[in-house]
Amino acid sequence: MSHEKVHAHLLEAAEPLFPDLHGAIARLGPLEFPNREGTPFPHYLCRAIAGQQISVKAAASIWGRVEASAGDGPLLDHFTEANTDILRGCGLSGAKTKTIIAIADTHRTIGLDADALRALSIAERSARLTAMWGVGQWTADMMNMFYFGEPDIWPDGDVAARKTLERLTYKRRKTVRTAERFKPFRSWLALYMWAHVDAPPDGEAVG
């Protein structure tokens, strides 16, 4: 569905009960949902992990050093326990380094092929991702939204999206329940919440 039609759907869903939310969506106008599937999925996931909880600029700088440290060899082959100190030296935290190595190990052993993951249900795909050390539900939600293009995910674990929806609706009403009104475009609802407060999710930092 076009982003203009999604915008109209969200406005229609918000208007009867949530005037502040309706106004915020109206002011933003139709938004285009970014999609990152041009990058091999394991690379995208590793870079998303590296960029979490830091600025876009810092994430780009660290990832540039990570890529440079791999030299001419395949990037995922560089993500091994033997190279932990090298990766830490690029600016990655210990936890992020361990997670990226776990992702690479998973890809080498059972595979993280994008087409195979896309064939799974959202729940199955999320379970496959969160089975890796350091990959939580929030990260799985971001991957489902921004890489696999799932239009109907409400990332309740995202503080910015959740708190913004609370402010624009009812603080005492669970956002999961509020978001139900916006099916089948809850991913877009989250996108509007991030845009409203100019707080893109970490997945947005992945170029």
Mind explaining what this structure looks like?
There is one protein chain. This protein is 61% helix and 0% strand. It has 207 residues and is mostly helical. The chain has helices at residues 3-14, 19-28, 41-51, 56-69, 75-78, 84-89, 94-109, 114-118, 122-130, 137-147, 159-168, 175-180, 186-197. Helix 1 runs antiparallel to helix 2 and helix 11 (159-168) packs across helix 13.
Strand content: under 5%
Major beta sheet summary: none
Which parts are unreliable, with pLDDT below 50 for 5 consecutive residues or more? 203-207
Q: Spell out the helices and strands N to C.
A: HHHHHHHHHHHHH
Shape: elongated
What is the helix fraction of residues, given as a range? 55-70%
Structural class: mainly alpha
SS summary, helix count: 13
| Rg value | 18 Å
Mean pLDDT across all amino acids: 93
Number of strands: 0
What distance lies between the first and last C-alpha atoms, to the nearest angstrom? 24 Å
In a nutshell, what does this entry contain?
By secondary structure, this protein is an all-alpha fold. The protein contains 13 helices and no strands.
For the structure shown, list the relevant keywords.
207 residues; mainly alpha; 13 helices; 61% helix; elongated; disordered C terminus
Q: What's the layout of helices and strands?
A:
Blueprint: H1 3-14, H2 19-28, H3 41-51, H4 56-69, H5 75-78, H6 84-89, H7 94-109, H8 114-118, H9 122-130, H10 137-147, H11 159-168, H12 175-180, H13 186-197
